[in-house]
Amino acid sequence: MHLKLSGPLTTEQLAALGSIAMESAYLEDLVDMLIGEITKLSDEQLRAILPGAMLAAKLDILKNLAALKLKSKSKQQKISPIIAELKHLNGQRTIAIHGQWQSLQKFTLADIANGLAIEIGNAEATHVRGNKQPAKLNAGKLQDIADGISEYRDQLFHFWLDILIRPAAIRSARKSRSKSQ
Q1: Distance between CA atoms of 141 and 106, rounded to whole angstroms?
Q2: Residue 147 confidence (pLDDT) above 90
């Protein structure tokens, strides 16, 4: 008899885990771009001042820059919950990506040897950071995390598109027109 022992996650959960990783990478690229736009620093300058900075730290930097850049309290109140939710989702991402996944079904090697069907998908990740309490995440939340990162990344992009990028493009177009006349 040949036994095959698979991990505790379903194919769909593994795909959601991959989506979390990719959506987080897209988010980090956007945050880097926004920090660069707000500070007017080049990519090379950003790499020099943020070497190895984690996404959570970059989100904090973006939040602080937004407080400095946005004079309007209503604009600050719009961006603050977006960044707060992205920070929460990033914490969930950390557990999902770096946590140790285990089945919630209790079994022994003897159970496996005797042909016990091991249920996949009913799992959770545990992640311990420093002296803090272990953080846990149920596998059933993986797709929601990926979707949340995507949704809030999109909200972050559209907020800054309206506040920072479109106005700069309009100013640039006006300058170009006035120079050509």
Answers
A1: 21
A2: yes
